[in-house]
Amino acid sequence: MRIIVAITGASGAPVAERLLEVLKKGKHQIYLIISKNGEAIVRAEADLAKVKSYADRVFREDELEAPISSGSFPIDAMVVVPCSMKTLAEIANGVEENLIVRAALVSLKQRRKLVLVPRETPLAEPYIVNMLKATRAGAVVLLPVLTFYHSPRTVQDLIDFIVGRVLEILGIEHNLYKRWGNEGFSEGA
Ligand SMILES: Cc1cc2nc3c(=O)[nH]c(=O)nc-3n(C[C@H](O)[C@H](O)[C@H](O)COP(=O)(O)O)c2cc1C
């Protein structure tokens, strides 16, 4: 698959890093966009060089002339992980200020899969309204919530659960966590 992954300035860079690692292992083509604020948070929470190394192409948020700005460029799906409340608001309200929001709105207009992984808590009313608007526009809002039915032992297990959920929306098979009702726990992609 050809997948756009966008990282914005919310906490959660390790989730993006793991998603990129798994997509790379699966030989998917990855177009990575990192916002200015996202880059600062990746530096604090993960390894920026490693994150970039998984991508086939890396774009800055101001590279609006990038091929992925156009609906004619073949892309199968886009994931914004983590998705800040600011980027969520721009996507939900159609404010195309940078390449991330442009590519997300192109995904919606082309009826492609768009997964948003917002990270904020507690939620102010405008955040909830924007999640509703984004959902109504066709995006999947996937909250990186804590889950315990897969018997996580490490933070990595919790991250893998979220990454697995994203992959399920993209239609990509994985073995990142024990599904409800299945025996055994399998690690790795
Ligand atoms: C250390 C730090 C952590 C932040 N964490 C979050 C967060 O978890 N969720 C969020 O919505 N915004 C968070 N913000 C605020 C965003 O970075 C800010 O709204 C920014 O303008 C987002 O821009 P972007 O979406 O273009 O990356 C954080 C900011 C800083 C400095």
TrEMBL record:
Any GO molecular function: carboxy-lyase activity
Alphabetical keyword list: Flavoprotein, FMN, Prenyltransferase, Transferase
Flavoprotein domain ranges (all copies): 1-169
This enzyme's EC code(s): 2.5.1.129
Reaction(s) catalysed (UniProt annotation): dimethylallyl phosphate + FMNH2 = prenylated FMNH2 + phosphate
Pfam families assigned to the protein according to its UniProt record, in alphabetical order: Flavoprotein
Keyword Flavoprotein: yes
Sites where the protein binds dimethylallyl phosphate: Y149, R165
Entry annotated with the keyword Transferase: yes
SUPFAM superfamilies per the UniProt record, alphabetical: Homo-oligomeric flavin-containing Cys decarboxylases, HFCD (SSF52507)
Residues binding FMN: G9, A10, S11, S35, S84, M85, K86, T87, R119
Gene3D superfamilies for this protein: Flavin prenyltransferase-like
Function statement: Flavin prenyltransferase that catalyzes the synthesis of the prenylated FMN cofactor (prenyl-FMN) for 4-hydroxy-3-polyprenylbenzoic acid decarboxylase UbiD. The prenyltransferase is metal-independent and links a dimethylallyl moiety from dimethylallyl monophosphate (DMAP) to the flavin N5 and C6 atoms of FMN.
NCBIfam families: PRK06029.1, ubiX_pad
Family that this chain belongs to: Belongs to the UbiX/PAD1 family.
Full protein name: Flavin prenyltransferase UbiX
Species this protein is from: Candidatus Terraquivivens tikiterensis
Gene encoding the protein: ubiX
